[in-house]
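Model it.
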Amino acid sequence: MHLRSVPTGTKKRKPARAKGAAMGEKSPEARRFESTDELREILVFAQDRPFDYFERYSIKEIREVCVQGMYRQRMSSQNATWAQECIKGLLQNGDREMAQKVLEWYIFEPAFPSAEKDAVEFALSLLYPHAFYGGDCHYIKPDALLKMIAGKLKKAPHIYPSIRGLDKFFGAFLKQLANSTNNGQHYYYSDCWCQVERVVTVIALVEDTSYLPTLQELSALFGRGKLRPYDEKGPLTKEMHLALINATIKILQKKIKKG
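Modeled.
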């Protein structure tokens, strides 16, 4: 018995969505072959020929091994083009989980500045137009995108100034925190702060003074009691949050004084 294969395309690749089971379980397709020599052989070769085997097999477990193998490959313009087409195809088929795995490899692997910039800008293009007000399985969630992009910028801050659309993306998270004052109780949840913390950390790292007015506004809201974490007894308290914002404000003010 043979594993079902997906024909390899030449330009536009639309990998089929793996019919996976619940998280942590093997897909029905993989369970049928997990004890066969054929599957073991495929998993071995998938490490060395990840792109070919990713296209050939739609089984989730095989594709996960392929993604691991991609990290062993040197990034090239051809691989970058493949990644973009692959991610688009996965999203069109509603397989956001696998699309995010390939996107993470694409963002973190480029070895030269222009490719790094292109990868982040491509990632931003995958954001649902109304992502901060709802979701869509054919797009990447903003919090998942932020985690990848912020992680990349911490490793390669030199590409920050050249990335188009990043200011609006970061600004949306800060605005989301400021808008917490519209709910009448002035509380925000930990997931909201987690995202803001990633944004503010990058702003401090690259010393982007354009965010100074926004951060000063947030600091004032904290000071007037307009912003409070939902669980002030937790490890992430209001004082710690305000301290991060104020420390970043000082960094930006110092940058402005230096000129």
